[in-house]
Amino acid sequence: MMSNASAEVTEYVETLARVQAEVLRSLPDLGSSLAAIVRRVRTGQLSKSGSISGGIEYAVHGDGCLFVSSDGREIDIDFLIDGTPVFDSWRIERFSASRGIASKVTADELTRECRLMASSGTLEEVSEGWFSVKPEQSTDGRLIGDSQD
User: Cα separation of 115 and 28, whole Å?
Assistant: First the structure.
């Protein structure tokens, strides 16, 4: 049986993959990187917030973006300079709260679970407390951050 922390992290990662796939399908001019949404906002090619087909709303902030799926699930991510989406325990907690689930674990437990997943090769800890999905772990069969030919 999966621990509460493992279930929360896994659900976040799976929802991130689904949201990413839908956003990139709906906005093909972004190419293969969600980070392009931030670049497009900064250059005035896209409004700072809006709706995407499929019922996903987005709001760009600082170095990241908040995506809200049609069922209200909030996926908040920041981006590394190379465009890699990254998240921390606070973002997982926010995601769980958006699902109407009172988290039964602490931020430290979520971080510990992310580190366990990093040691098993599912996630990567890119800096202290910040994680990304390893490209080969993309649940939609595409490499996150890689171009599609």
Answer: 33
Contact 14, 22 (CB under 8 A): no
Q: What is the pLDDT of residue 146?
A: 36
- For the whole model, what pTM was predicted? 0.85
Residues of the chain with pLDDT under 70: 1-2, 136-149
Neighbours of 15 (CB within 10 A): 20
- Whether the CB-CB separation of 75 and 67 falls below 8 Å is answered with yes
- Gap between the Cα atoms of 25 and 48, Å rounded: 19
Length of the chain equals 149
| Residue owning tokens 């407390």 | 129
Whole-angstrom distance, CA of residue 134 vs CA of residue 142: 11
111-120: per-residue pLDDT in tens? Answer: 999 999 999 9
Q: How far apart are CA 118 and CA 132, in angstroms?
A: 9
Q: Within 13 Å, how many C-alpha atoms sit on residue 65's CB side? A: 33
